[in-house]
Amino acid sequence: MHRKMVSEVRAAVTTPQPSSGIQVWEFDAPTMEKFFLELAQEKPVRFTAQQLCAFTDNYNTVLSSGGFGRVYKGQFPNGVKIAVKVLNRGPNRNIEEQFMAEVGTIGRTHHINLVRLYGFCYDHFMSALVYEFMENGSLDNHLFSENQELQWDKLHEIAVRTAKGIAYLHEECQQRIIHYDIKPGNVLLDENFSPKVADFGLAKLCNRNDSHVTITGYRGTPGYLAPEFLLKNFPITYKCDVYSFGILLFEIVGRRKNTRGGGNSNDSLNWFPKKVWEEFEKGELMKLTEEKDRVKAERMAMVALWCAQDSPVARPPMSAVVKMLEGGVEILPPPKPFHYLFSVGTDVLRPPSDSESGSDYTTCEGTNSYWYKETTPIMAEYEITVATL
Fold first, then answer.
1. Per DSSP, what are the bridge partners of residue 73?
2. 181 catalytic residue (yes or no)
3. Catalytic residue among 181, 199, 241, 310
4. Is domain 45-132 annotated with CATH 3.30.200.20?
5. Which one of 98, 132, 216, 361 has the fewest beta carbons within 10 angstroms of its own beta carbon?
C-alpha cells in the first residue's frame, strides 16, 4: 500500500506542467517528493521474511539473545542501520501478546526518547520487529561496566531524557501507555549516547480516565517491580513505571546494580536505595558521590526517593519527575519509603497522611505541589517563598 502511494505521488510530482515561464515543479518537486515519501513511512511497514533475510545478510550478526528470541544487526538498501528482533514461535501465546503489544504501542508513537519501530514481519513462520539501530547498546552495559566511561553530566542527561520519554507515554499519547518494564537494559543509547526507551513487549494501552488497569500474569523484572505487584487484586496504575524509574535512578546514582533480597535478609539490609534513605535521614546525602558530582547526585537521589514511595498515589507523575530532575524547582523532603520490605500489606500502600499541607498530591498544577515548590535562582538566593493561602 505504501509503495503504491509512493509511486502515485512520484508520478504526480514529476509530471511536466504545461505552462509558460518558470516551472514551479522544477524547484519544488524534489522537496515535495521527499516530504510525501516521509509521510508514507510514518506508520510501521509490513516486511516479508525474504526482505528481512536480505536486510540482515542472512542473519549474519547477532546483537543479543534471550528467552524472547534474538536481535540481529541489519541495514536497509539506503544504508540506514536497523535491529531486527526475531521472536521465538511456539505454543506459548505470550510471544503473540508481546508482538501485538510492541506493534500496538510503540508503532503509534513518535518521540525523540522512544526507540522507533520501522516495521514488522508476521506470517506462518516468523514474527519479527524492525527497529532503528542504537549504536551504543543498552544503558546497563555502560552503567555497570568496570571502566564506567559515562561522565556524570551525561548520566544526568540520560536520566532526564528517559523521564521525558516515559512522561510522553503516560501523559501525552492519545491513550496512556504503561511500559511495565522500565530498567537500564531497556534504555538504549544512540551514537551520541542519547537515550531511547525500548522493549514494549509488556506494554499496555489504557484509557486516560481509567483509575487502574487489570493485570493477568507476571509482568516486569524482579528488583524493579513496584510493591503493589506483590499483593493480590491490588489496583495497578501507570505509577508502577514511576517506581521502576526510581530504582533506575538509584542505580545511576550508585553506578551499580541494586541487590535486593526478601524480608530481613542481609541483601535487603544492604540494598542501596535503603542506604540512600538512611543517608538522607542523617542529612548526609551529599556523601554519596564525589565532590564535583554532589549537587546533581543529591537531586537525583531525592527524586528517586519520591519515585520509590510505597503508595502509588504518593509517587509524582513523570512530568513532575522531569521538572525536579531539571533543577528548576525545590524538591520537598520525601516520606520514608520501603516499608513493604519488612511488612507486606495493603496499609503500606496507602497514601501517607499529609494533614499539615492538606494536599491530595494527585496533581502538580500551580506554584506548589506535594513533591516540589516553584523557585527561581533569585528566590533561592534570598530565601523568598511563595505565599500559600
1. 83
2. yes
3. 181
4. yes
5. 216
